[in-house]
Specification:
- The chain is mostly helical and about 300 residues long.
- It has a domain at about 10-60 and about 140-290.
- It contains 18 helices and no strands.
- The longest helix is centred in the first third of the chain and has 19 residues, at about 40-55.
- The radius of gyration is 22 Å and the shape is globular.
């Protein structure tokens, strides 16, 4: 009940964070009681609520363009779903051209004059296409606005719990449908805005997806259909990866999960990953994160 109560005061958020940690400890002993009270759905519902509040301050979400050659060798069913995803993105970014492409096809051939009139009428919206808008949005991310510490702590506790629950055998029956609801949308926003949420939440969000894919490899295609994997590839290979030791160390595991099927491997190759990763290895910004911690080495060498 504490986690389900949607209060926005900072003290209440801290109280919910403590409740999440208590539930995390209790479920180590009794997971059946947690499931009987629909605990997992309540956690995801609360996570969605907190991310929606963050979206008001930072509305940016990565919308990568899916190239058609990647879907050429994909089975027909998956290709159809990918096409729908691409058209959805196109309609959101440039509604003018999408309507222009569909309306003339529906006009009968007998009314050619009307079709020409419609072509000239639809032509004006084409010059101000919104294709340049995605490059203009990233500057809004780097405005210095960050998630408040209380909410970041709550999100961290919930993502840690989800990461543990996905791997728990007690959740094997219900975990297959955990990505069918609002969870992918929330994860997309966190992964798209590493500057806002911070490196630790970014890492946890990618780890939740990675653990889910390794737990249910056959459901990787569903994550590809809803665009979550494309957002991850964009955030890791096109945007600047957070310069922390933990994020850089997680990259091989994340990429292995995203490339478990042919479709994921093609999407990975299209991002030209090796050129990008070599730049990261040679960049002065990432060198401090890759230095060996001598204090953590028991032998000191």
């Amino acid at each position: 009940k504490v986690i389900k109560f949607l209060g926005d005061e900072q003290d209440q958020i801290t109280f919910v964070t403590r409740a999440v940690r208590v539930v995390d400890l209790i479920t180590n002993l009794d997971m059946a009681a947690f499931q009987s009270h629909s605990g997992l759905s309540i956690f995801i519902y609360r996570l969605e609520h907190e991310v929606d509040l963050c979206r008001r301050e930072c509305p940016f979400v990565i919308k990568p363009k899916v190239q058609r050659p990647a879907a050429a060798t994909v089975p027909e069913g998956e290709e159809m779903e990918t096409d729908m995803e691409v058209t959805d993105v196109a309609m959101e970014s440039s509604p003018g051209p999408s309507t222009a492409a569909t309306e003339p096809a529906a006009v009968p051939s007998t009314s050619s004059a009307t079709a020409l009139d419609e072509g000239t009428a639809v032509a004006p919206p084409r010059p101000p296409t919104l294709t340049p808008c995605p490059p203009k949005k990233p500057p809004t991310v780097a405005t210095g606005v960050q998630c408040i510490p209380q909410r970041a702590a709550l999100l961290k506790s919930m993502l840690n719990f989800l990461k543990k629950a996905i791997q728990d055998p007690a959740f094997s029956d219900g975990i297959r449908h955990v990505m069918d609801g609002s969870l992918p949308t929330s994860l997309k926003h966190i992964i798209s805005n590493a500057e806002y949420y911070g490196p630790s939440l970014f890492l946890l969000a990618t780890e939740v997806v990675t653990v889910f894919v390794f737990q249910e490899p056959s459901l990787l295609s569903s994550l590809q259909d809803n665009g979550l994997t494309d957002v991850m590839l964009h955030a890791l290979l096109i945007k600047d990866v957070p310069a922390t030791r933990e994020v850089l160390g997680s990259l091989p595991n994340v990429f292995s999960a995203l490339c478990l099927n042919a479709r994921g491997l093609q999407s990975f190759v299209q991002c030209q990953p090796f050129e990008r990763l070599f730049k990261v290895l040679l960049s002065p910004d990432y060198l401090p994160a890759m230095r060996r911690r001598r204090s953590s080495d028991p032998l000191g060498e």
